[in-house]
Specification:
2 domains, single chain, 2-enoyl-CoA Hydratase, Chain A, domain 1, Acetyl_CoA_COase_Trfase_b_su, ligase, about 280 residues, cytoplasm, zinc, ATP binding, binds zinc ion, alpha/beta
């Protein structure tokens, strides 16, 4: 039985492939493939210490990065989606929502919280891409609208952290109405002269880009984030031309005037604080 005999000599496993340490102790950067300790990676605000790749993180991690001592009051945490259209794709929409809730421990694609950032009071709404692609349905729109209400009521600045594939197709027209609703609320925030900062993270596309993500008094982004409305393939086919290099990257979008600045996540908390202090 020749296949029981090891014919090749000198088979060696690269260090990073060896499974000696328990899972979760090490982090491998998906961009440069280098290894670092999970603890170090977390201390680095979930960015790679070698190539500065910004890991895609959710609301839990952003709240931890931004709120002092990770202390905040979560707003409307139990709001969940209905099924206004009785939508069925490969499975009924309520089943999909329930399965996603179990898998992610989240209730929908955005979480909103109220707390302090370097002693400055702030309301933060942060999207979770893990929840059906960070899609914007009625719950996302409603929670953002209520978070803005909270900002207006308590006269504290509002920070929106977007990461989304766009509208939630299972709610079709109801999703699109969230664009108008959130935009109207932001207009009220503006009338109340309360600052709104929009942070666009990787990726921010579709109806989210076309509404609240681009309506900030400051629109800012993380390095290398993909920002756009339609995907590059659709645009290429529509205009019948090749797209320029780096198209839809945060750097490209900044150069073309849609962003105010790009901020490294490690500096995010301090930069936001000094910006808000400047606006007071
Ligand atoms: Zn890296």
């Amino acid at each position: 039985m020749s296949w029981f005999v090891r014919k090749e000599k000198g088979i060696s496993t690269p260090t990073e492939m060896k499974r000696e340490a328990p899972d979760g102790l090490w982090y491998q950067c998906p961009s440069c493939k280098k290894i670092m300790q999970t603890r170090e990676h977390k201390l680095n605000a979930y960015t790679c210490e070698h190539c500065n790749y910004h890991e895609k993180i959710g609301s839990d991690a952003y709240f931890e990065v931004l709120f002092d001592q990770n202390i905040y009051i979560e707003l409307d945490e139990n709001l969940t989606s209905g099924n206004p259209l009785n939508f069925v794709d490969t499975k009924p929409y309520p089943d999909r929502v329930r399965a996603t809730m179990l898998k992610t421990g989240l209730k929908d694609a955005v979480r909103t919280g109220f707390g302090k950032m370097n002693e400055v009071e702030i309301v933060i709404a942060c999207m979770d891409f893990n929840f059906i692609g960070g899609s914007m349905g009625s719950v996302v729109g409603e929670k953002i609208a209520r978070a803005i209400d909270h900002s207006i009521k308590h006269k504290v600045p509002f920070l929106m952290i977007s990461r989304s594939g766009g509208a939630r197709m299972m709610e079709a027209g109801f999703s699109l109405m969230q664009m108008a609703k959130t935009s109207a609320k932001l207009a009220m925030l503006s009338e109340a002269k309360i600052p709104y900062i929009s942070l666009l993270t990787d990726p921010t596309t579709g109806g989210v880009t076309a509404s609240y993500a681009m309506l900030g008094d400051f629109n800012i982004s993380e390095p290398g984030a993909l920002i756009g409305f339609a995907g590059p393939r659709v645009i290429r086919e529509t205009i019948g031309k090749d797209l320029p290099k780096g198209f839809q990257s945060a750097e490209f979008v900044l150069e073309h005037g849609f962003l105010d600045f790009i901020v490294d996540r490690k500096d995010l908390k301090d930069k936001l604080t000094s910006l808000l202090n400047m606006l007071r």
